[in-house]
Predict the structure.
Amino acid sequence: MSVLVMDNEENEEEENKPLVRNKSDWIPKPTKDKDLEETIKTLKTNSLTSNKNVKNNLTHEEKTALQNLKSDKSIIIKEADKGNAVVIMDREYYRDSILNMLQDEMSYEVTDKKLDKQTSTMIKKLLKKHKTELYEEEIDYISNSKFSESYFYGLPKIHKSEEISNAVSEQNSEYIELLRPNDLKFRPIVGGPNSVLCRISS
């Protein structure tokens, strides 16, 4: 059995580092190694240059269809909650369904936008009160952090809809057409502004 003994000084040094800090704007100076600099330059150039010889794996008709779907503001496209399926819905139907979810006062409540500023003010007061117990990097990171509102959306639970299940059995096709199913529920999702699913689903 091997036992690794850590030096106490190393432990103390690790503990005495700030937990968070803002990104540094420091840029390393070019090295004296010409070969290394040439390699870096080549990698930067090639990575930014698009390869014009890449063949598209979509036909002209498929690309046109995707573009039409993307530009159609009357519909909204979501991935299904389960089942690895894509669901195309009437935008008004989707909006009404989500707004109906938010009417559930047991799960959601309307908050005042002023709460964001109040919370920010409280955090700054706490930082000032405990500034002797924090590193400057930590205070700077927390006090200068920018917050953004999250996005709320829903993923359709097609696997729990009896109407959709019946349509699947009747139509026996990869593409099921069903207008505004009454029993379709949505799984609520709260995603940050940089969420990939938010960008795809918006």
